[in-house]
Amino acid sequence: MRNLITGGAGFLGSHLVDKLMESGEEVICLDNYYTGKKNNIFKWIDNENFELIRHDVTNNINLEVDKIWHLACPASPVHYQNNPIKTAKTSFLGTINMLGLAKRTGATLLLASTSEVYGDPEVHPQSEEYRGSVNPIGIRSCYDEGKRIAETLCFDYQRMHDVDIKVMRIFNTYGPRMLPNDGRVVSNFICQAIKGEELTIYGDGLQTRSFCYVDDLISGMMKLMYSKEAGPINIGNPNEFTIKELADLVIKKIDSNLNIIYKPLPQDDPLQRRPVIDLARKKLNWNPSVEINEGLDRTIKYFKECLDLEVIK
Ligand code: NAD
Ligand code: UDP
């Protein structure tokens, strides 16, 4: 099996590279290094089953592949809002290009979609039938609407060209190899706490998220790829926390003397988010197993090592 992983040098992509390489598959890792790091996949560089290509998915590419894991797209609000037009192009053109490749080669394509397709949801928790409440013109729209059109393209390629697609709606995922500066809440809180800084809560901290550990997420992604399901299918951990609860937990684990400061809530920040994962449980026999305590300990250990290596300044 020849696997193409777009965004393979990123947080989730590099964990997927590890799993596929460890099981002896061939992997082509494609990335433009916008938020990905060569370091994440460096250990495979001399392996004959591994190939690394610097490429931007907004441009066409011709390869012979059997499976396309289409992850290329910045995921952190800070990064995807940095150049929103580029984010929209990556989602739209990048997905068209990968679907075109899937059509030509007969490869299966898995799209890393997101819970952001539900926007700031009026329905809680969110199941796959919910159609979402997305602001089409706000600062998150480049990402949210980008992923929505990417899903649309997948189903149109399935209907028109019989492309074998898998649409996975990923809920907030955390773990080692998140970028220390990527602005997402778990990496922000842990890095702030390790450096002895105040933890920054946006808004009143009563907004909720449900955090999935990266190993669970990757196992769900692989189960979906090897299943007969097209999705869309939610993959995430349904244990829901307020952001204040998360801050308190990180403080308890790292240094109970640390303080919290409150900053303005960014525009369109979703108030609550929790996946219904009945479909994944039933169709994929998947269930997350790493709880927040264990997952945070592993992530804190990783960021402390980064600090020792002076990756975090
Ligand atoms: P990430 O930013 O670490 O990884 C994205 C990767 O894509 C990076 O290596 C980046 O350099 C690459 N990339 C970006 N634009 C590109 C382009 N135009 N051409 C080629 N490569 C490009 O983010 P992540 O957390 O690993 O997310 C991976 C995928 O999963 C994304 O599609 C994201 O939308 C989706 N997702 C992630 C989460 C999460 O919580 N981590 C949640 C929902 C969805
Ligand atoms: N957040 C926060 N402090 C931070 C970073 C994020 O309070 O330093 C909040 C953010 O406003 C949001 C939640 O944490 O309500 C999750 O943010 P993240 O960027 O991780 O993911 P997303 O909003 O895309 O789910």
Give a quick rundown of the structure.
With 313 residues, the protein is α/β, with parallel strands linked by helices. The chain is 38% helix and 17% strand.
Task: Describe the overall structure.
The protein has 313 residues and is α/β, with parallel strands linked by helices. The protein has a domain at 2-174 and 213-237 and 276-288: Rossmann fold, CATH 3.40.50.720. 38% of the residues lie in helices and 17% in strands. It contains nine helices and 13 strands. It has helices at 11-22, 77-82, 84-105, 141-161, 185-194, 214-225, 243-254, 278-284, 292-308; strands spanning 2-6, 26-31, 50-54, 67-70, 108-114, 165-170, 173-174, 199-202, 208-210, 212-213, 233-235, 240-242, 260-263. The strands form four sheets. Strands 3-2-1-4-5-6-11 form a seven-stranded parallel beta sheet, with helices on both faces. It has a two-stranded parallel sheet with strand order 7-10. Helix 1 links the parallel strand 1 (2-6) and strand 2 (26-31). Helix 3 (84-105) packs parallel to helix 4, helix 5 packs parallel to helix 7 (243-254) and helix 7 (243-254) crosses helix 9. The protein binds nicotinamide-adenine-dinucleotide (NAD) and uridine-5'-diphosphate. Residues 77, 172, 184-185, 188, 200-202, 207, 209, 243, 266, 269 line the site of uridine-5'-diphosphate.
